[in-house]
Design brief:
The complex is a heterodimer of chains A (about 240) and B (about 325).
Chain A lengths: L2 H8 L17 E10 L13 H6 L4 E14 L3 E20 L10 E11 L1 E9 L1 H6 L3 E17 L6 E2 L2 E2 L1 E16 L5 H11 L3 E12 L13 E11 L1
Antiparallel strand pairs in A: 1-2, 1-11, 2-3, 3-4, 3-5, 4-6, 5-6, 6-9, 7-8, 9-10, 10-11
Chain B lengths: L5 E5 L8 E6 L10 E2 H5 L3 E7 L5 E7 L5 H5 L5 E8 L5 E6 H5 L10 E11 L8 E10 L7 E8 L2 E7 L10 E7 L35 E7 L4 E4 L8 E8 L12 E3 L4 E2 L1 H7 L18 H19 L1
Parallel strand pairs in B: 3-9
Antiparallel strand pairs in B: 1-9, 2-4, 4-7, 5-6, 5-8, 8-9, 10-11, 11-14, 12-13, 12-15, 15-16
Classes of the chains: A mainly beta (about 240), B mainly beta (about 325).
Chain lengths: ~240, ~325
C-alpha cells in the first residue's frame, strides 16, 4: 500500500461506520472519571521527614475528575482532540499535639487538618477508532499527554493554615500522560444508542480505564508541593 | 399546642352556651406552647375570661371530662374545682396556675405528657352532669428528656470538641442540646485545680449533675436535635475546661446535666506546619507569583483559580 493510499484511509471522515448513517455530528467528548490517588508529598524530603504520611496516613484518596475534549479531527481510523480537565481530591487527618511524646494515637488532637487539591490541566488526546469502525470490535485504545497546574490548600480546622506568615496554599505545575482502553457501549445496545443520539445528541458512550502518570512536581524546581503519582482511573465518556 | 375551645355538650338552648377565652399567661409565652416543667415549677399564672349569661349556674373546673358529675364528685374524681358554682353573670375572669393544670387533684409538677382541659360548666344542679360546657384544652409536658450520656471532651488548639450520645428512642421528642462550660470561653483563666476529680470533671466542681443548669455557663450555642458534637472555640491553651451537656425536648424541657468531662486546649501542628517544619518550601498563597516561569496556560489557570478562590471566599 502506497503512502498516499495509507493517508487516504487514515483521513477518511468518520461517516462510514456501522452507526454512521444514523449519527449526529460528533465534536466533543465529556469524561467523568475517578480513581485512587496518593500524592507523593513526602518525596520532597528524600526519605527523611514524612509529614504527609504522619498526618494523613498511607491510604489512597479518591480523585474525581471532569474532562472536556474538542475532537478537531476524526476519521474512521483515529481521532485527535485537545481538552481541559479539572478534578478534586482531599486528604483529611488530625493535627498532632505539639511536643507530644508517646504513641501516635495519643498525640492526635481533635483538630482536623486537610489537604485539598484541585488538578487543572490542558491535554491532547489521540484515540484509535479503527477497531470500532473497521473491524466491528468495540474497543478503542487511547493516549493523552498534558500540562498541569494544580491548586492546593491546607486547612487547620479554623480555615486556611498558616505558618509564620506563609499561607498554606499554592500551585504546583507539572505534566501528565495517560493511556487506556475504551469500551464502546453502543455496540451492546445499538438501537438504544441511536435513540439516545437522536433525542439528546449523545453520539456514543464509552466505559474506559486508564493508567495515569502524573508528574506534578513543579518540573523539579524544589519549591513546590509534590503531588505526583502513578495510578489508574475508571470513567464514562460521552461524545456529542 | 393549644386547641381551640370546644363545645362538649349542648343540650340546652343555644343562648345558654358558655364561652372561655385566654386573656394572658406568663411573660414571653404563647398559648400554643402549652405548659412545660419550667412553667409548672414557676407556677405560671393563666388568666381566663368566661361568660354564660343564660346558664343556670356557672362553675369552672379543670381535669378530664369535667362535665360529668362522676368525674367531679364521684368516688374517683378526675377534676378539681377552680370557681365554685355561682349565679350566672355576663362576664368574669378567673386565674389558674400551671401546677393545677398539670396535676389538678394534687397541684404539683410530676412528670406528665398529656392534655388537660379547663371547663366552664352550665349546671342546673351542681350534683348533676352539666347541661352544657365549654372546654379549653392545654397541652402539658413536664416529662424531661433523658440526659445525654458518654460526654467526652477533646482539646484542640484554643478549642475543645465536646461529643455525646443521646437516647435514640427519644429522637421524635428532641429539640436540641446545649453545652455548658466552665470556665466560660470569655473568662480569664482561673487557677487550674489540682488533678482531676472523680466524676470526670477537672475538679472545679462548677458543673454538677444535680445542680440547676445556669444559662451563664452556656457555651457554643444551641445545637440541633441531630448534633452529637460541637467545637467550643476562643479558649485558652493550657487551661482545663469542664464541659457537660443538657438535652431539650420539643416542649423546651431541659434534661438533667450529663456526666461532666474535662480536657484542655493545647497547641497543635496542622499538616502545613508539619510540612514547613520538615523543610518544605511550598506555599504562600494562591494569588501570589509562583516560583519559576509559569507557562501561559498555567497563568490562565492561575487567574481562573484565583477568581474562583476569591469568589468562594466572598460567599
Amino acid at each position: 500500500m502506497s503512502l498516499g493510499v495509507a493517508l487516504a484511509v487514515l483521513l477518511i471522515p468518520a461517516t462510514a461506520s456501522a452507526q454512521g448513517q444514523y449519527e449526529t455530528s460528533r465534536m466533543f467528548a465529556v469524561e467523568l472519571k475517578g480513581g485512587p490517588y496518593l500524592p507523593d508529598v513526602d518525596s520532597e524530603f528524600e526519605g527523611g521527614a514524612r509529614p504527609y504520611r504522619e498526618t494523613f496516613g498511607n491510604d489512597s484518596l479518591t480523585n474525581l475528575g471532569l474532562e472536556i475534549d474538542w475532537q478537531f479531527l476524526a476519521t474512521d481510523v483515529f481521532s485527535l482532540g485537545v481538552g481541559a480537565l479539572a478534578g478534586f481530591f482531599e486528604a483529611t487527618g488530625k493535627s498532632r499535639i505539639e511536643e507530644c511524646v508517646g504513641p501516635d494515637a495519643d498525640c492526635l488532637s481533635s483538630d482536623e487538618t486537610n489537604l485539598a487539591v484541585m488538578p487543572l490541566g490542558v491535554l491532547a488526546v489521540l484515540r484509535v477508532d479503527a477497531l470500532v469502525n473497521l473491524a466491528n470490535i468495540p474497543l478503542a485504545p487511547f493516549g493523552k499527554v498534558g500540562v498541569d497546574r494544580w491548586m492546593w490548600w491546607v486547612g487547620d480546622g479554623d480555615g486556611r493554615a498558616n505558618e509564620r506568615g506563609s499561607t498554606g496554599s499554592g500551585w504546583t505545575t507539572g505534566w501528565h500522560a495517560a493511556g487506556g482502553l475504551m469500551l464502546l457501549l453502543d455496540f451492546f445496545e445499538p438501537s438504544a444508542a441511536r435513540k439516545l443520539d437522536q433525542e439528546s445528541g449523545i453520539n456514543s458512550s464509552y466505559l474506559f480505564g486508564e493508567i495515569l502518570l502524573a508528574q506534578i512536581d513543579g518540573f523539579g524546581d524544589g519549591e513546590s508541593l509534590i503531588l505526583s503519582d502513578v495510578t489508574w482511573n475508571l470513567g464514562l465518556c460521552l461524545e456529542f | 399546642m393549644l386547641l381551640p375551645a370546644l363545645l362538649v355538650l349542648a343540650s340546652t338552648p343555644a343562648f345558654a352556651v358558655p364561652t372561655i377565652e385566654l386573656e394572658e399567661r406568663g411573660p414571653g409565652k404563647l398559648p400554643a406552647e402549652g405548659i412545660n416543667l419550667v412553667d409548672c415549677e414557676a407556677a405560671e399564672r393563666w388568666l381566663f375570661k368566661y361568660t354564660c349569661a343564660a346558664c343556670g349556674q356557672v362553675a369552672v373546673w379543670v381535669g378530664d371530662n369535667c362535665e360529668t358529675a362522676e368525674n367531679r364528685s364521684g368516688a374517683a374524681p378526675t377534676c378539681a374545682e377552680i370557681v365554685p358554682a355561682h349565679a350566672p353573670i355576663p362576664t368574669d375572669s378567673f386565674e389558674i396556675f400551671a401546677p393545677e393544670v398539670v396535676s389538678p387533684l394534687d397541684p404539683t409538677c410530676p412528670p406528665a405528657d398529656t392534655t388537660t382541659s379547663v371547663f366552664v360548666l352550665d349546671l342546673l344542679d351542681a350534683s348533676d352532669d352539666a347541661s352544657s360546657a365549654i372546654e379549653y384544652p392545654i397541652l402539658v409536658d413536664t416529662d424531661p428528656p433523658p440526659a445525654p450520656t458518654e460526654v467526652e471532651a477533646e482539646g484542640g488548639e484554643g478549642n475543645v470538641t465536646v461529643s455525646w450520645t443521646a437516647d435514640a428512642g427519644e429522637a421524635a421528642d428532641r429539640d436540641g442540646f446545649q453545652v455548658l462550660c466552665f470556665p466560660e470561653p470569655s473568662d480569664d483563666a482561673p487557677e487550674p485545680p489540682d488533678g482531676t476529680d472523680t466524676d470526670g470533671g477537672c475538679g472545679y466542681g462548677a458543673l454538677a449533675a444535680d445542680a440547676p443548669s445556669s444559662t451563664d455557663l452556656f457555651c457554643g450555642g444551641r445545637q440541633g436535635a441531630s448534633a452529637r458534637s460541637v467545637r467550643i472555640g476562643n479558649l485558652s491553651n493550657g487551661v482545663p475546661y469542664e464541659v457537660a451537656v443538657i438535652a431539650y425536648d420539643n416542649f423546651e424541657n431541659p434534661s438533667r446535666l450529663s456526666n461532666v468531662a474535662c480536657d484542655e486546649p493545647q497547641p497543635v501542628e496542622d499538616f502545613y506546619e508539619a510540612y514547613r517544619r520538615a523543610g518544605g518550601k511550598a506555599g504562600g498563597g494562591l494569588c501570589t507569583a509562583a516560583p519559576g516561569a509559569p507557562s501561559r496556560p498555567a497563568t490562565l489557570f492561575a487567574l481562573l483559580a484565583c477568581a474562583a478562590a476569591l469568589w468562594r471566599r466572598g460567599r
